[in-house]
Amino acid sequence: MSNGDPLRVDFPSAGRDHGPRHPESGGDGQAGVKNQPAALEERYPPGPASGLGRVALWCYGLSALLAAILALSLTLAARAEALVYWVNYEDGTIGRANLDGTGVDQSFIAVAGFPGPYYGVALDDKHIFWDTGAGWIGRANLDGTGVDPSFIPTAAGASGAELALDDQHIYWSNGSFGWIGRARLNGTNVDQQLLAPQSSYVKGLVVDEGSIYWSDYQNLRIGSGSLSPISVNPLFIQPTPNSPEGLAVDEAHIYWSNGSADTIGRANRNGGGVDQAFIPTAYAYGVDVDDSHVFWANYDTNSIGRAKLNGSGADPAFIGGAGGPQGLAVDWALNPGAGLEIVKVKRNAVRGTAKLSVSVPGPGKLTLGGRGLRRVNKGANRKRVGLLARPKGGLKRKLATIGKAKANARVTFRPRLSEGSKTKTRKLRLKRN
After folding, report:
1. Backbone torsion region of residue 421, taken as left when φ is above 0, otherwise alpha when ψ lies between -120 and 50, otherwise beta
2. pLDDT digits (tens, 9 = 90+) for 285-306
3. What is the DSSP string of 355-370?
């Protein structure tokens, strides 16, 4: 990850009438296109007596092409980094490092004259968010600039808020107030009482594909619910050994830190297969995952731990030198060699919809469209993303009338760390009982 927008490179061909554009080009820019080749022709005029003009032009085009390819490759290499971020509660800073443990910066964000980060931290494709511990959620750009320590207010007097994001909203736990709040990612439409999780102290929080999960610190359990419509199941996983803190999910599992029990727990996404001692560690707070590892913050040992997704290779001191780390979040890298794939389609005959499970090569934006289908835009913040295909207009009426209809779903992925896009299509056979 690096500062600024991705580099855009125009590749010139080796012909006489094409070259790099220049600011002095007038109107459509074509005057600038011919300036340098023309200068070369004056020095090496083409003709029967000499082929140096054409050779010079060909060499110029080739060198420009090679330089552009080199610049693009270096840009992609620099911007394909993936990072882990954590809150240094004792130091009042946000630290970060590469996912391989290198490039550690314990003071990546520090806000002078304002209370330091307290617990939660979360990422979208442009920003990092954190709980200040003083009734505010702060925000900054992913490169650490544009720091706003009072971006969104939390409930007055609330502290220890965990944060979670989907593609449109930010969510937070209002600590001992027992409510979960929500706002749009631009800071508007603040709702301090979106959901009552039936807990006197909500800590960890995660949102994924319309579902929400939270850790009930006081009652030693994990709750779950739906965001549309709002529903609550406070007994999703219980009991946990002690002090459940941070939460994370991937395609198959939910993970949580068992505080003073010194373990990371894991269960299947349906709440079954509970393993309360999946990974042994020191007192853990925040937890997050990428497509290959689990990361967690060890408060007592001032370190960031890491293990493989199957729990093996655990290293509680993977990154040292932190200052009482609590909240933790992982950003993941673009894999240029991976493709966009529609992995599976699951139909819902009751609602007449279909859920597409899409595998993406890195962070970015997904768009689902197609004739007769509602347009869906969703952030790709993990390797596998779910998109819901819903009929509209004539397709919806046909489905309601005869109980079946066909559609072509078109899924487009636009990566955050480079330019360009990839598109896949899939024929859908919708049914409705």
Report:
1. beta
2. 999 998 789 999 999 999 999 9
3. EEEEE-SSSEEEEEE-
- CA-to-CA dists, residue 73 to 41, 106, 261, 410, 427, angstroms: 31, 29, 46, 29, 36
Task: Say whether 128 sits in a helix, a strand or coil.
Answer: strand
Average pLDDT rounded to a whole number, residues 135-141: 90
* Angle formed at CA 329 by CA 156 and CA 130, multiple of 5 degrees: 25
- The pLDDT-based confidence of 266 (bands split at 50, 70, 90) is very high
The answer to whether residues 8 and 420 touch, using CB atoms and an 8 Å cutoff, is no
Bridging pattern class, strands 303-308 and 353-359? unpaired
Sheet holding 364-369, edge to edge: 376-380, 364-369, 404-415, 422-431
Site of tokens 């207010």: 153
Q: Where are the beta strands (DSSP E) in 180-314?
A: 180-184, 191-195, 202-208, 211-216, 221-227, 230-237, 247-249, 253-257, 263-268, 275-280, 284-289, 293-298, 303-308
- Roughly what angle, to the nearest 10 degrees, separates helices 52-79 and 30-43? 130
Nearest alpha carbon to residue 416 among 141, 125, 124, 127 = 125
CATH topology of domain 83-330: Neuraminidase (2.120.10)
CB 66 within 8 A of CB 4: no
- 370-424 residue pLDDT tens: 999 999 988 776 778 889 999 999 999 999 999 999 999 999 998 865 667 889 9
Question: How far apart, in whole angstroms, are the C-alpha atoms of residue 433 and residue 431?
Answer: 7
CATH class belonging to 341-431: mainly beta
Asked whether the CA dihedral 390, 393, 394, 399 is positive or negative, the reply is positive
Alpha helices, DSSP H only, in 50-165? 52-79
d(CA 206, CA 247): 6
Domain range annotation of the chain: 1-79, 83-330, 341-431
Supply the mean pLDDT for the chain: 80
Whether the domain at 83-330 and the domain at 341-431 fall into the same CATH topology: no
Structure tokens at 39: 């200068």
What is the C-alpha separation between 158 and 291, in angstroms, rounded? 33
Backbone angles phi, psi at 159, to 5 degrees: -145, 165
**Tokens 């012909």 appear where?**
15
End-to-end CA distance of the chain: 48
Q: What is the pTM of this model?
A: 0.71
